[in-house]
Design goal:
Strand 1 and strand 2 form a beta hairpin. Helix 2 crosses helix 5. The termini are far apart. The chain has 5 helices and 5 strands. By secondary structure, it is of the alpha+beta class. It has a 5-stranded mixed beta sheet with strand order 2-1-5-3-4, with helices on both faces.
Length: 168
């Protein structure tokens, strides 16, 4: 006996500082909603099983795998994607440091890594190498840029600390 598909429900969430409303089926993941409904394709879907970290976004200040969160679970919450980090005219310090320290290779894992590390730097501007490695522990990089990722994150943290100090 086949079950009838559920009707779409209206979900409103804040994405990159902007309120967005979409109609989604209850089974649609946040990754699918971001990519297909909102056109935010920076969030990659590598494994679709919460194993690779390509789909990492920041949800209410915490790095999560968007392929393992239902879009309806994100209703009323704040989502940050790689598109909200910076722009070509004004890169986020993490983005600039990834370029400067050659931590960017193929680009499949990079958006997820950036978001994992943004969540870390939102918590602390004095991360240790261990903190950084733990933050990206769920992000698989087949190109092996981990050493450069650590260097880039330490450099970005320094820039953000300097900015925070100058703002005082």
């Amino acid at each position: 006996m086949a079950t009838a598909p559920s009707a779409p429900c209206r979900v409103t969430l804040t994405v990159n500082g902007r309120a967005r409303s979409i109609d989604v089926l209850a089974r649609r993941t946040l990754a699918e909603a971001l990519r297909q409904d909102l056109g935010l394709t920076g969030t990659k879907v590598g494994c679709n099983r919460a194993e690779c970290g390509s789909c990492t976004v920041v949800l209410d200040g915490r790095a999560v795998f968007a392929c393992s969160v239902l879009a309806v679970e994100a209703a009323g919450r704040v989502v940050e994607t790689v598109e909200g980090l910076g722009s070509p005219a004004g890169l986020h310090p993490l983005q600039a440091a990834f370029i400067e320290h050659d931590a960017v290779q193929c680009g499949i894992c990079i958006p997820g890594m950036l978001m994992s590390l943004k969540a870390l730097l939102d918590e602390t501007l004095t991360p240790t190498e261990g903190d950084i490695r733990q933050a990206v522990g769920g992000n698989l990089c087949r190109c092996g840029t981990y050493p450069n990722t650590v260097k880039a994150t330490l450099a970005a943290a320094s820039v953000l600390r300097d900015r925070a100090g100058a703002a005082r």
